[in-house]
Amino acid sequence: MTFSVLAAAAHGGGTPAWAMLAYLVSGVFFILALRGLSSPASSRAGNRFGMAGMLIAVATTLVTHDIANLPEIGIAIFLGGILGFTIARRIAMTQMPELVAAFHSLVGLAAVLVGWAAYLNPGAFGLLLADGGISPVSKIEMGLGIAIGAITFSGSVIAFAKLSGKMSGAPILLPARHVINLGTLAAIIVLTGLFAVAAPTETMTLIVALTVLSFAIGFLLIIPIGGADMPVVVSMLNSYSGWAAAAMGFTLGNTAMIITGALVGSSGAILSYIMCRAMNRSFISVIAGGFGAESGATAAAGGGEQRPYKQGSAEDAAFMLEQAEKVIIIPGYGMAVAQAQHALREMADLLKEKGVEVKYAIHPVAGRMPGHMNVLLAEANVPYDEVCELEDINSEFAQCDVAFIIGANDVVNPAAKTDKTSPIYGMPVFDVDKAKQVFFIKRSMGGVGYAGVDNDVFYMNQTVMLLADAKKMVEEIVKALD
């Protein structure tokens, strides 16, 4: 919404010096927001910095431009604020990944609409030349903004559908998909160049074709990507939305949009790189789509055979936990679904009262979204010094008495280290197989992780399966401990 407001108001004469200073201040607030959001401890302050920065940017743009439809913009801001507030209050943490994808789609669509508005009425945006045309540089910026925005929109729609379960998370592999994708991208680049140099009477067909192909390539790029790589897709689309906003900022001459878009685009790109490194993926292999898809289908199909496993009770787990010297808890998406974080913290507190050392092991992609588990544990007031990243705690599993897995799956699957045919092969995982005892909470033996493959940890000699709702099982363990 704020992106559209900035864009709608960004036209007219030169920007006053005080307004440039205000945009700079808002940019500093955005940087402080990103810095704050890097840690759960400072995330609230980071959110406030971001809100303050956007308020300054929007207010400055409205004050410094001649706005004919200010009441309509005010109504749009009010309605958008009410909608955002309502969604934020009602949305569950387990739905955050698909919500982020949905919001990215809106940013992309806003970029497309602003680009088309600038094309259809360049005079209102200060882009009209004396000969009645638009400069080639402005048209390149406009074309890039529309193209990136359309790719962001359609790609985010597919990501939302896969994350929300409205569409299968399995890769959909089209014949000769790489050739189709490369050809479509090449056509978009050529169309952007032709659009920049074409006469005003010839540009309509070119911009329509550019828009249609950009929407199409967004679908084509995301459909072949499997569920295991969805966290990277979400951060990648976040980056795309930023670059779309930055491109439109150049077109409209709005400094705030350029700063905001560049920050979002660069931070999203850095996050994508971090996610790829955490999953031992190359960025190119992810965006090419279908990475490990064929082998993943084979691996999933091979999991139909029932293998022997040990099943235990809450009393069994409680007895072993209170006898342990060191317990490492690995939370995952199942904990988020069951909202078991508060019961888990209560269990950990009881264990610490009995002299047990308790730590939490967080994988970079736990919960289908970076930082998802950290936020849930912070919500339950888990001390930050007990929460450890994979690279910091993985070596401790060999000295661990109990590895307590609650709702995690792919991030503890040893197939990532041993099975070259697995779609998660090469992804760093926790070495829970080195722990003396493993308790694994999941609803039933029928389910598999988001990557769709079976897990050998279920069947290890030291593993005891606790088959129940995660929250209910932990609450029963708490009763047995108390």
Automatic annotation (TrEMBL):
<feature type="transmembrane region" description="Helical">
    <location>
        <begin position="73"/>
        <end position="92"/>
    </location>
</feature>
<feature type="domain" description="NADP transhydrogenase beta-like">
    <location>
        <begin position="21"/>
        <end position="479"/>
    </location>
</feature>
<feature type="transmembrane region" description="Helical">
    <location>
        <begin position="99"/>
        <end position="120"/>
    </location>
</feature>
<feature type="transmembrane region" description="Helical">
    <location>
        <begin position="256"/>
        <end position="276"/>
    </location>
</feature>
<feature type="transmembrane region" description="Helical">
    <location>
        <begin position="182"/>
        <end position="200"/>
    </location>
</feature>
<keyword id="KW-0521">NADP</keyword>
<keyword id="KW-0812">Transmembrane</keyword>
<keyword id="KW-0472">Membrane</keyword>
<dbReference type="InterPro" id="IPR012136">
    <property type="entry name" value="NADH_DH_b"/>
</dbReference>
<feature type="transmembrane region" description="Helical">
    <location>
        <begin position="140"/>
        <end position="161"/>
    </location>
</feature>
<feature type="transmembrane region" description="Helical">
    <location>
        <begin position="206"/>
        <end position="225"/>
    </location>
</feature>
<feature type="transmembrane region" description="Helical">
    <location>
        <begin position="49"/>
        <end position="67"/>
    </location>
</feature>
<comment type="similarity">
    <text>Belongs to the PNT beta subunit family.</text>
</comment>
<keyword id="KW-1133">Transmembrane helix</keyword>
<keyword id="KW-0997">Cell inner membrane</keyword>
<comment type="function">
    <text>The transhydrogenation between NADH and NADP is coupled to respiration and ATP hydrolysis and functions as a proton pump across the membrane.</text>
</comment>
<dbReference type="InterPro" id="IPR034300">
    <property type="entry name" value="PNTB-like"/>
</dbReference>
<keyword id="KW-1003">Cell membrane</keyword>
<keyword id="KW-1278">Translocase</keyword>
<dbReference type="InterPro" id="IPR029035">
    <property type="entry name" value="DHS-like_NAD/FAD-binding_dom"/>
</dbReference>
<feature type="transmembrane region" description="Helical">
    <location>
        <begin position="20"/>
        <end position="37"/>
    </location>
</feature>
<protein>
    <recommendedName>
        <fullName>NAD(P) transhydrogenase subunit beta</fullName>
        <ecNumber>7.1.1.1</ecNumber>
    </recommendedName>
</protein>
<keyword id="KW-0520">NAD</keyword>
<dbReference type="Pfam" id="PF02233">
    <property type="entry name" value="PNTB"/>
</dbReference>
